[in-house]
Amino acid sequence: MDVGVDTHKKTHVLVAVGTPGQTLGTRTVANTPAGWAAALQWAREQQQQHIRWGVENSGSLGKGFAQFLLAQGEAEVREVVPHRTAQYRRRGRTQDKTDAADALAMARLLGAEGDGLPLVHADDASTELRLLSDHRDNLIADRTRLINQLHAQMLRRDPRYEGRSGPLTQAAGVRFCQEYDPLHADALVRTRLLIVRQLATRIAALATAIAALTAQGSVWPHSGRHSSNCAAWGRSSPRGCSANWGAPCASTPRRRSPPSPASPRSPWPPVTATVTA
Q1: How many domains would you assign to the chain?
Q2: Percentage helix, strand, coil, to 5, in the chain?
Q3: Angle at 30 between CA 61 and CA 127, to 5 degrees
Q4: Do the domain assignments include residue 251?
Q5: Residue 181 in 3-state DSSP?
Q6: Which of 27, 110, 118, 124 is the most buried (most CB within 10 A)?
Q7: How many Å separate Cα 15 from the centre of its chain?
């Protein structure tokens, strides 16, 4: 039995097709864990020996349902891209674009070309690694942006402040800005100092969060689940790595800084920020 799943933010529409191409039923469920369970129960109640699932947008709107199916032991969950759905919908008796028509088109696509559609794989340790790495990259980008803003504010007040503060990429430089309190500050300067202190406080908080993520990521090489020599560590997709975590990755990595010499086993690149004068 082939089940096409048209995915949406709030609901999923399922159409089951048996052999030889007979429509067995249609079901709409909520895009929630309870709805996923109801959908699986409905499909299994069709009493077919084998169920093959075709899930549209299995990496976004349909990701939760696709991963739920795999966790429940469904062996064949395949990704269906929208343009293939449209091709098979146009082959039907009507050209109407409805959720049920799309789900039926997916089921027919499964029946005709199912073995050639990509399988959806269960999330594993590499998914957690990718989430940590992407989140850390976002925090570093935010930190760099705030440092540039802080630098601009300090230059307006004291063009030579860096000689006393040191680089703003270091904790001492941020702390200097937090404590900066010049004499004879008028109302405008006080307003600027308020901005400076708030920026410095946010930068310090981001530095703490980045350090926590770095510590979390440093556990991975010692766990044996990933080798620090994998070029795909970080924002490039760890899914490109082979099943042997120690093997080189076939995917092309985005540009990354090498590990710090002080910590050769760490997979994380050094945290740097460019200050724009």
Answers
A1: 2
A2: 50, 10, 40
A3: 35
A4: no
A5: coil
A6: 110
A7: 29
Do 153 and 103 have their domain in common?
no
- The region of weakest confidence among 124-128, 164-168, 186-190, 256-260 is 256-260
Amino acid, res. 80: V
Q: Evaluate the omega torsion of the peptide bond into residue 182 and state whether it is cis, within 30 degrees of 0.
A: no
Any domain includes 8: yes
pTM: 0.58
Query: CA dist 100 to 5, 43, 60, 155, 163, Å?
Result: 9, 16, 20, 62, 68
CB 184 within 8 A of CB 103: no
Give the model's pLDDT for residue 127.
Answer: 78
* Percentage of the chain exceeding pLDDT 70: 77
Whether residue 20 has a cis bond before it, omega within 30° of 0: yes
In a domain, 260, yes or no: no
Three-class SS state of 5: strand
Tokens of 199: 């920026």
Domain of 17, in residue numbers = 2-116
Is the pLDDT confidence value at 114 over 60? yes
**Torsion angle, CA of 194/199/205/208, rounded to 10 degrees?**
-130
Do 164 and 224 share a domain, yes or no? yes
Does a structural domain hold residue 247? no
Q: Amino acid letter at 83?
A: H
Q: Tell me the average pLDDT across 250-274.
A: 42
CA distance 16 to 99: 13
Tens digits of residue pLDDT in 39-49: 999 999 987 77
